[in-house]
Specification:
By secondary structure, the chain is mainly alpha-helical. The chain is built from 15 helices and four strands. 66% of the residues lie in helices and 3% in strands. It is globular and about 85 Å long.
Length: 375
């Protein structure tokens, strides 16, 4: 690993100009600007503590979904089925709360069992996606697009398109407490936000402090080189999609609890929001670049922007235009950022040739040292 790369890992702003620092921190700066603008436009509504808590609770679903999407994108893939997986997990949770008929007997599992079953459903969908992409060599876009329709169809078939209501449970059946995820708070912070914190910390540790994280970045940066280096590329890919499915299921359980109902259309187009959050956070859709911190900031940028536009009375159609413009701007800035990085890397690896000393004809000699391969 070169000294420049090592310094960049320790301090992402090391050796950068002021303009480059602004480019690297664009998601955070965008969030600050959005907060400042809407605080000025709606000073009695937007910056209040109660509204901030509500916005964070709403963003938590998108953010958890985006963390799973980040893992797949880091591997150079895409998962278009996360919105449908969210809806299916919510339907599974709702149906389990209504009772599971087995052999003429209806079982009412405890809430923690319901959550485990719903999360396992998301993991199963992710496993199928991973096997299609890694083992059967189906293009990620095609595989996950097909699963989007399959999973959404399963959610609709489970109730013939009807919504499952009355998820409060009954004390005598032992299945109460499902609304705890959506309505309760701990230290004044909604449970959904706490779940987001746990998911964010776990994902950050996984990507930055584990062997799998190093394998994931290596596989996404250059799959062929990673495979030649001994990285189990197929296993890394399958696990990435499983993680995405688990995150989608967790988001689905939280959303179902907040709505106190499970509908087969829940999560429609959420996959686009998740991709947008990852892109706004600075990740590359080509793989190998991206952070959990940036993805979470991207999710909050989208969530706070939508909430602010709603508060000031902007129509939903105009909100779509604003969101699309933000995504396009993020893609343009990502392109500028990565071109600057490639240029800096090329310059560091290919220094200018030595110049001849004036009047002597001698050439200054530069010692050549072997450079360690970068991770």
């Amino acid at each position: 690993m070169t000294d420049v790369t090592a310094r960049r890992r320790r301090n992402p702003f090391s050796g950068l100009s002021f303009g480059a620092i602004l480019l690297e921190a664009r998601a955070f700066l965008a969030l600050v600007v959005i907060f400042a603008i809407f605080s000025f436009l709606a000073p009695t509504a937007f910056p209040t503590l109660s509204n901030i808590v509500v916005m964070c609770q709403q963003v938590s679903v998108y953010a958890i979904l985006s963390v799973g999407m980040l893992v797949v994108i880091l591997d150079g893939g895409i998962d278009l089925s996360v919105g449908s997986t969210l809806g299916l997990a919510g339907m599974v949770a709702g149906l389990c709360m209504q009772g599971i008929p087995i052999g003429g007997v209806v079982l009412y599992p405890a809430v923690w069992v319901v959550v485990i079953i719903a999360v396992a459903t998301g993991a199963l969908v992710g496993l199928v996606n991973g096997l299609l992409v890694a083992r059967l060599k189906v293009a990620p876009f095609v595989a996950t697009l097909g699963m989007l329709y399959v999973v959404r169809g399963l959610a609709e078939l489970s109730t013939n398109g009807l919504t499952v209501n009355n998820l409060d449970g009954k004390p005598e059946l032992g299945n109460t407490g499902f609304d705890w995820l959506g309505f309760n708070s701990l230290l004044g912070i909604p449970i959904g936000v706490w779940v987001l914190v746990v998911v964010g910390i776990a994902a950050s540790l996984l990507l930055n402090r584990s062997v799998y994280g190093r394998w994931l970045y290596a596989s996404g940066g250059n799959q062929r080189a990673a495979e030649l280096s001994g990285v189990p590329v197929r296993k890394v890919k399958v696990r990435a999609y499983v993680i995405s499915g688990v995150c989608a299921a967790i988001a689905g359980v939280i959303l179902t609890s907040e709505l106190t109902s499970a509908g087969p259309t829940q999560g429609t187009s959420y996959e686009l929001t998740a991709i947008a959050a990852v892109e706004i956070g600075g990740a590359s859709l080509m793989g190998g670049r991206g952070t959990v911190r940036g993805t979470l900031l991207g999710a909050f940028v989208i969530g706070f922007l939508a909430a602010g536009l709603t508060i000031v009375g902007v129509s939903a159609y105009v909100q779509t235009v604003f969101t699309g413009a933000v995504i396009v701007l993020a893609v343009l800035l990502n392109g500028i950022q990565y071109r600057r990085r490639r240029a800096a890397t090329t310059a560091s690896k290919n220094p200018p040739p030595p110049t001849s000393s004036a009047g002597t004809g001698s050439t200054s000699r530069v010692p050549v040292t072997a450079e360690e391969p970068t991770a």
